[in-house]
Amino acid sequence: MDQLTLPVSLSDSAVFENFYSRGNEQSIKFLKNLTDEKSGNGCMLWGRPSTGKTHLLQAVCSSFGESGIYLSMQDLLMTDPKILEGIEQRKCICLDDINVCVGKFKWERALFNLFNNTSEYGSMFVISASAPPRDLQFLLSDLQSRYSLLTIFHLCQLSESGRQKALQLRAMNRGLILPDETAHYLLRRGRRDMRSLYELLDKLDNEALVAKRKLTIPFVKSVMNF
Asked: Is pLDDT above 70 for 33?
C-alpha cells in the first residue's frame, strides 16, 4: 500500500447530498447503505459520460476517510500496473473508468489480481465503467466473470428538467439562489452535460462573490459573454 505515491484528491462537492438522484434512487440507496454499514461486497456503476459515476465513487470513498481510496484508471494508464499492488488492504477501493483498461493485458491482470486479493481481505470494491461487464471485451474472460459477481447499477442520464434541478441543487448547497429562468437560460446557451454545467456554476459563483451580484440573466450574460 505504501507503494502508491500518486496524489489522489477528492472533490469537496462529491457528496451524496449534492447528487440529484431522480431516476437513480436504487443505486443511491444501495451506496448509502454500504457507507453507513461500512460492509458489503461493493458494486459496479455503469453509464454514459456525465451521469455521475465519478461523483458517486468519490462520495463513497470520502465516507471511509483514510481507509478508502479512489483512483481514476484513466489517470493511471501511463504508469506501471504494479501501482495497484497492496491497495487491497484498504477498507474501500473505488476504481473509476475501468473500461479504459480493456485490451491492455497487464492492466487486466493487475485488476484481476486486485479483485481476488480484495475478496481475501474482505475489502469493499466499488467500480465504474461505460458499459456492464457483459459488454466489456476483456482479454481475460475471468475478469469479466469476477465483475459480474458485483451488484450492478445503470446510471440514467437526466432529463432537461432533471438537469435544471440538479444545477439548482448544487447552487443551493453552495448558498446560492439560482432562479428558474436563469437555470433555463444556462441550459439553453451553455454546454448541456452536467460536468460542464457544474464548472460554469463554479465560475459564476466566484464572479458573483466578487461582484456581490445575484445570479440573474443579465449578470450571467456579462460574465459568460453569451
From this structure: yes
